[in-house]
Amino acid sequence: MSRSHEPHQSFFPFRNPFRMLSPKGSHLSKKYLLQLNTFEETLAERLRKLNTKDKNDILSLSWMKSAMESLCNTHNDIKDLITELELPVSDWDEKWIDVYLDISVNLLDICIAFSSELSRLNQGNLLLQCVLHNLKSAPSNVFIRASSSLDSWRQHINSKNPRVENCCTILDKLVASLDLPKVKNSAKGKVLMRAMYGVKVQTVFICSVFAAAFSGSERKLFHVPVSEKYKWAQDFSDLQSNINGEIRNIFSSGGVKVLKELEVVETAAKKLYPMIQDGVDLVEVAEAFQNSVSDLGRGTEKLLQGLDLLSKEVDGFFQIVLTGRDALLGNLRSNGAVSETMLEGNVA
């Protein structure tokens, strides 16, 4: 795995692995251009769909689910493109392979960090379920237990997840890998490098938004400038400006600390907390009390559903990265392209 003190490296910082794939001076054929155009146009369409005009969608679990689903589809597309290009793994440079495996490990680490945060938020829902269960009972002593559970939930939600906090370091490495290598003699290499750049840009952007959402800090956001020569460049720039700009506005105005669905639950909990803590006369505030309990119940259910759906998408992305990594290792072993010692040293 990369170490934070190592200098930034491009994705292909060493000898071009595609140098031997075609004669010197090769140009993109119509076939390769069609494959590249199809990939870039599909990516542009995905980016447009993520560029929501409804500000309430930003930092919501539903938008984040769509973003992760979009990212999964793009990573699947690059796998299909590699298959279509029929790039022989045996010609890849060992040092490039090492860098590629290192980047895949970084992506797996990010997935693990996001999954751990989603699991932590789900654990908080168990405390909310205890609150709601106790509030259905009549004896006053259950309000004491409900108040205690609500206190525990607030402390749990406001705690920091070290894995999410460390995402910035990992994202720094991925941003440093965005530089495109120079591919002079391989038409297939040119297609793959250009397509993989789009994959990496989308990956860095979405992962940085997730890190900001889970940490409640705009410092986790990254701004990635993209050349206009890419078909998806304008759509990405519009998406990045809209989402990052709105997140910064939300945080600067003291808005959402983490997720929109979680903010709804926190608001309901704040209204309910004084009623069960101070032992107010529930007869006098019966309607307000029931409304607050109902709001908390609905908010908790929506939060639970959203976390569950997003967790599945993050797990799916983890599997896509892992299977792609395993497939590369399998191909290398079957082709005898590199030593077993090198492969074993790179296994996560």
TrEMBL record:
Keywords: Membrane, Transmembrane, Transmembrane helix. It comes from the Eukaryota. The lineage of its organism: Eukaryota, Viridiplantae, Streptophyta, Embryophyta, Tracheophyta. It holds the Pfam family ROH1-like. GO terms for cellular component: membrane. It is a single-pass membrane protein. It is found in: Membrane. The keyword tRNA-binding does not apply. This is Protein BPS1, chloroplastic. Belongs to the ROH1 family.
